[in-house]
Design a protein that fits this description.
six-stranded mixed β-sheet, 18 strands, alpha/beta, Rossmann fold
Length: 471
Amino acid sequence: MTRRSTHRPLPSGRPEAEATALPEPATLYVPLTSRRLRFTQMSVRDSQEVRAGDILATAPDQSDLPLLAPRAGTVRLTAVPGHIALEVARPAPVGTVVLDEEAIAATPPRDAVQDNRALLCRLGAWQCFRDVRTGDIPDPCHEPAALVIMVTAFDSFIAQPEALLAGKATDFVQGLKALHRLFSGSGCRIHVVVGEGECPTAVNEAIEAVALDPSRFALHRVPQLYPNDNPQLATQTLKLASPPQATVWAMGVEGVLAVAFALTLYQPYLERTISVGGPAVEKPRHVVAAVGHPIADLLAPLPSGCSFRIVNGGLMSGTDLAPQQQGLDGECPGLTVVHVPAAREFLGFVRPGRFRQSFSRCFLGTLFSPTPEPLTSLLGGEERACVACGHCEHVCPANLLPQVLHRYLYNDQMDDAQALGLDECVECGLCSYVCPCKIELREQFAVAKQQLRSDADDAALATAAASVTDQ
């Protein structure tokens, strides 16, 4: 696939590569919801003592995947709505938690693929997989045509591979080697995607391990530009979904580490390495923390007397952190913080924009070398009708026509949008980022894709019900 040129944002506030272990808090606030999971079935009672790795709750609508206790402690179910508060019993430095076989209630895996997958489910590693087409957690009973491992992170302010792999390169390699135990026969090939150019030592070790076994692995290098870290884009570019209906799964670095812990140590992977960055963060950094670590501690110190917008994820692909969320959830790759100015810039429309970036190249900053820009939540104008400038088309990595898709969806022409390739949208957000009319194209396309999947599921259920009736 020939990609169109992309726009590379250069915001200020990028975190340092080295990860810092945070002190253990007295209480963890484990959220019962994350981007893809809803834990509604409680497995513990109030004031119950739990060990690290015990099941706190499960997600009935998602194969009963568990929410694990990140540390040993006492459960408080009513302390914070939407969370399980866990009073940590024995504060210890992150990474020193030791689990035994009784604590995780698991038996060593046998040769059967389903036994290995069941072990991953029990130890909280299965939620690291995602279906590339839908973004959902795949059914453990299904089989993919290919598995994509993304050892890349080009979105601003999400955890970088060098930080995730620091001191864990051996575990990562073990996880890669163990992945074949999750698939029947040799039908599923594993594709490892890394960035071009010089790679950190830990990443190079993983690359060398992959290169030694070309029968199971394929190594792919991509330019270090956003959104080349998107697994759906990688699947399209490498033509892994053949036929187009074929299922492809993906996972990241921490997913491979979780597989290594589950299949080689029979333990859950309870650490999270995330980035804390953005223009409003005084000292952007990577941190190692447990799920449930208080958000306020992760972001401290923030300047007083200012308003902030906190994003769960990166600048381009993240979503607003729910105001009621008090602790780190298990799917968060990073926290991005930007200022919310109290007022719009006075006469901002007449300023030449010496330090501003723009895809339309209409500011004075175009004449100078790019410098990190302290972005804020200001839109620099109000949303207005599409002017058909074509900027979104030029940055779309999937070679779509976002301006035409927007018009079709605005007029409820869902069939026309689908025929134009709506399903191929990778939801990178570049179209929204460059749009001079401030149209939330990414959100519009994501909602429409979800509606298409919902309609397809309803049609499949209706067909199955009709077949049963005919019989």
